[in-house]
Amino acid sequence: MSLELVFQYLVSPTFIHGAIMTLLITVSSLVFGLLAGFLLALLNQVKFPPVKWLTVFYLWLFRGTPVLFQIIFIYNVLPTFGIRLSAFASGVIALSLNEGAYMAEIIRSGLQAIKSGQRTAGMALGMTRTMVLRHVVMPQAARIMLPPIGNQTIGMLKTSALVSVIAVEELLLVANQTASATFRYFEALSAAGIYYLALTTIFMAGQYWMERALEPKRSRVEKRSLLSALLQPAEDKH
What we know:
Function: Part of the ABC transporter complex GltIJKL involved in glutamate and aspartate uptake. Probably responsible for the translocation of the substrate across the membrane.
Number of strands: 0
Keywords: Amino-acid transport, Cell membrane, Membrane, Transmembrane, Transmembrane helix, Transport
Mean pLDDT: 86
Number of domains: 1
Order of helices and strands: HHHHHHHHHH
Low-confidence stretches: none
InterPro entries: AA_ABC_transptr_permease_3TM, ArtM/GltK/GlnP/TcyL/YhdX-like, MetI-like, MetI-like_sf
Largest sheet: none
Radius of gyration: 21 Å
Family: Belongs to the binding-protein-dependent transport system permease family. HisMQ subfamily.
Number of helices: 10
CATH architecture: Orthogonal Bundle
Structural class: mainly alpha
């Protein structure tokens, strides 16, 4: 065990690049997953049966198969149809499609939590459906959706390590390759673990401050400390 070697790994360009790649995969997959989830949540409210069935099929497919299977499938099968993507793009697409299925349920439940009377009141004031969604529904739904979305973000950070199976040079692959070359598994994996914990802490702190910013009655309710927010267990989706 060498703490000096752990520090050398932490500041090495290879590990820094791996951490940046992990962060990029996480953020990209989360953004595209949110967009897909929002679209699916809206389509799920459409009463036209073919659209409804297509949405249900999507949710069934991507929630019913392992993320690792989806990553390998997209990376290896799409080229047989003439669609050639980089390993990074394949990983992000697979994670985004999977994330969209879970985000759809979060967004759907958030939207449905807003009483229909508020929508009706907005329409009575001359708002269009889009204006009601933007100015009435979404600000309230965001407070409901933020905690589970925060948990999904932390889960995505850890799930991003799965793209190492298609040789994306993210943090876990860098640590594993370094350990295989030097046989210093403890030091290499410890450095990777520190990066994961640091990124998780940043995301959890960001979620905490966003929840406080969106809370309209925070002066009248018991404020949760940042430490308690970091120590609260998050529910993993996988």
